UniProtKB/TrEMBL annotation:
Pfam families reported for this sequence: GDPD (PF03009)
Official protein name in the record: GP-PDE domain-containing protein
Gene Ontology process terms (BP): lipid metabolic process
Cited PROSITE patterns: GP_PDE, PIPLC_X_DOMAIN
Organism of provenance: Alkalispirochaeta sphaeroplastigenens
Record-annotated GP-PDE domain positions: 44-288
GO molecular function: phosphoric diester hydrolase activity
InterPro entries: GP_PDE_dom, PLC-like_Pdiesterase_TIM-brl
Length: 293
């Protein structure tokens, strides 16, 4: 009996070892996507969250123009669909917080939505003609060489296809990083066109984090090209030197959201993060400039 147990244990160990070796032989780092190739490499990047939500009415053309004017490297934005399915740039599923209206974005036609004041919460900008832009309007206004992060907020195949269609129509597949909190959205994008760059969703980050803690990130093949994570998730710190190093080892771009405190920015930059996603791109530009070699 003892001999049988010993042999069984040896078989299990051998099988586990074989699987470990097989993973190591087949695992591949993230591919080098054009989105990252022309970005500055001698410093971290400033990613204007919703265009800089603490400086201007968020997710508006005014915010995107302002962020670029003060030196942001990348514009981040969110997309929902109107009643007709038109991709529009707004974060919440309702218009209540950021406009003069109330109700779900999906309940408005495009015409009705753009009659709302997207600067209603800003007294100095109220009734100055600032509207919720369509993603098409953003693509038309912002030069193609400016990198964008476009977050699809709905798990909606039709909306995902509409966003993908616009990226291809405007030939922005090399300068647009597509993201979502919904794994099915990312799967749809990756299956549709290999030219799309995507970030990892939570279900993909967790196994990679576990592998990094075991110094085994070399066994993980990233399905996307970027890690965009908060500084911590509950009690678990994410923006650690170990996780940043693991991401670099797998050719993953590592950025942290949403960081608005200059001291925290400096701590993260010292750990080697490659991007700061912030509502205060003005403060981030200063922090990155000070930290640059």
């Amino acid at each position: 009996m003892k001999r049988m147990i010993l042999w069984g244990a040896l078989v299990l160990v051998s099988a586990a070892g074989g699987a470990w070796v097989a993973l190591g032989l087949t695992a591949r780092p993230a591919r080098s996507h054009p989105f990252f190739q022309d970005l500055p490499r001698d410093r971290a990047l400033v990613i204007a969250h919703r265009g800089g939500a603490e400086l201007w009415p968020e997710n508006t053309l005014d915010a995107f123009r302002g962020a670029l004017a003060i030196g942001a490297d990348i514009l981040e934005m969110d997309v929902h669909g109107t009643a007709e399915g038109v991709p529009v740039v707004i974060h919440d599923e309702t218009v209540d917080r950021t406009t003069s209206g109330t109700g779900r974005v999906r309940s408005f036609t495009l015409k009705e939505l753009q009659e709302l004041d997207a600067a209603h919460q800003w007294e100095n900008l109220r009734d100055t003609g600032i509207t919720v832009p369509t993603l098409r309007q953003v693509f038309e206004e912002i030069p193609r060489e400016i990198p964008l992060v476009v977050e699809i907020k709905e798990s909606n195949p039709a909306l995902t296809d509409a966003v993908a269609d616009l990226v291809l129509e405007f030939r922005r597949e090399a300068t647009t990083l597509l993201g979502s909190f919904h794994q099915d959205v990312l799967r749809q994008l990756r299956n549709r066109d290999v030219r799309f760059a995507t970030h990892l969703v939570q279900e993909e980050v967790i196994p990679f984090l576990a592998a990094s803690l075991l110094f085994s990130e070399g066994l993980y093949s990233p399905p996307g090209e970027a890690l965009l994570v908060p500084p911590r998730s509950g009690i678990i710190p994410l923006a650690t030197r170990r996780f940043v190093r693991a991401a670099r080892n797998r050719n993953l771009f590592f950025a942290v959201w949403t960081v608005n405190d200059p001291d925290q920015m400096r701590r993260l930059l010292a750990r080697g993060v490659q991007g700061i996603i912030t509502d205060r791109p003005d403060l981030a530009v200063s922090a990155v400039t000070d930290a640059a070699p």
